[in-house]
Amino acid sequence: MEFHSESNIYVGEVNLKVTNLERSLRFYQEVIGFQIVEQSERKAKLSANGKTVLLSIEQPENVTAKERNTTGLYHFALLLPNRSDLADIVNHFVKIGLPIGSSDHLVSEALYFSDPDGNGIEIYADRVPAQWTWKDGEVQMTVDPLDFKDLLSEAKQEWKGLPAKSVMGHIHLHVSELSDIEEFYIKGLGFEVVSHLGSQALFIATGKYHHHIGLNTWAGEGAPAPSENSAGLSWYSLVFPSKEARERVVRQLEGIGSSVHEEEEGVLLTRDPSGNRIHLLV
Q1: Where is the VOC domain (predicted)?
Q2: Which helix (H) or strand (E) holds 27?
């Protein structure tokens, strides 16, 4: 997972608000194969390797159903280490009868579905970077049908849970508009634009990945932020290679008028122009 370590800025953890913690835990354990590393009455932390938290879920006291046509989560995306892992989980999904969508993006092969609260999830495997095509500074991606016959020829074993080397590959967000968002993520956070999808979606990354973050206006131009009690995205974290790199980004964010404050020891919090909360970690 060369694009999710060392000198890159990448998504580390996604935190979701859910309406029923017990139901969500069953889903994330039995359907995807997460391990619980910490749990309380209303919160749980989930991992692929038993140590690194990729997803945390919580059930606030006054939580309401996930609101539509708002900013927030489009999907979070779990990156599997091997194509054979993707084939294995396809067989698992067929066995349990989970409805899924799918796509071949040229740079990756992906499956799509939702959790019980309607939070979008992608599980994917990358093609090797040597097979990606770059033109004029942008990587070529598309939405082609997934060749299941070819994919399933690589299946190796019964699905036994997320492989230990799985990571949070990227996050894709609904935003209210793209111009201020681009300034925040590019001039502020230091990402680079790697692809556009018309005028409604933008893909950004560091280290020439195909994307660490996707941003779209498909919920509508000017879409409002969801209410504080709505199920859905609470926050996600970005991991920086060093304190110096994070300090530089804090100065850049403040330079464009974005506020940053320490939410807890070692955790800095900022919000993008659409209200999406971001933890800045080292």
Answers
A1: 10-126, 167-282
A2: helix 21-27
